[in-house]
Amino acid sequence: MISERVSEILGWYRTDNPGTLTQLARLLMHGRLAGTGKLVMLPVDQGFEHGPARSFAKNPPAYDPRFHFELAVRSGCNAYAAPLGFIEAGAAEFAGQIPTILKLNNSDSLYSGTDPEPALTGSVRDALRLGCAAIGFTIYPGSAQRNSMYEQIRALTEEAKAAGLAVVIWSYPRGSGLTKEGETAVDVVAYGAHIACQLGAHIVKVKPPTAAIGLAAARKTYEEQKIPTGTLSDRVRHVVQSSFGGRRIVIFSGGEAKDSAAILEEIKEIQRGGGFGSIVGRNSFQRPMKEAIELLNAVQQIYAG
Fold first, then answer.
1. pLDDT tens sequence across 271-280
2. Nearest Cα to 191, choosing from 235, 247, 130, 253?
3. CA 180 vs CA 50, 117, 218, 284: distances in Å
4. Which residues are designated catalytic?
5. 0.90 cut: is pTM over it?
């Protein structure tokens, strides 16, 4: 049975068809946080993005795509997200055990430029063939190539929703329009989350925002309106508010590699700020299976209250 909280959340997406609502419910009603309206997901696109050694050498079993399926299942995550190859490598063996999200675009680090533009590496048809609950897509607001990404996800969102899939957008401001500090500034993260909502995302993934203000044009408003940004929970609350008044699901990335205490303290702040959950990648899969499960369970316990 769908919980009251999940029913409330599904009500925010009344224009979607029953198939898409079913997939959203599938994500929200799976795992240790089922029915709470909170999500903890395992994302493993780092092999494509950063290379296999940088991603998996700390924990060699993670070179095998099946390790990640098993970790997501055994830890009770809501979902597992990855590019086409990793999903294909375990979709049959783990069919029905964990909702999956097919990441449809990816970048690699063999070429670096100031304005990133990920390549399309999967399709809605692939997601349907593999039994996925949703598609995933990264946009880089601030990149000179952002309009191409916006147009791509608009078309993919239309196709995915027509096919009854949910849409998850990774919104990571980055590019020549922003300084490095500005990429995670609270106003920029909130802006990026809002853009993802405007592009039709059901679930938005952003980085935890810092107290910096990245856009000079926004500073006056933040000061005049006395928008609280002093703590991470304040900033998370603002990002959630910027996402249609909290009527879109906003989850936060696990960020750079750090120790368990730092991870869990950050998660507590996200929870206090009303964040809908976390998507924890390298901070989990770079640990042995037992330690990774323990960490993800500790994260889930925080969100469970």
1. 999 999 999 9
2. 235
3. 18, 17, 17, 25
4. 205
5. yes
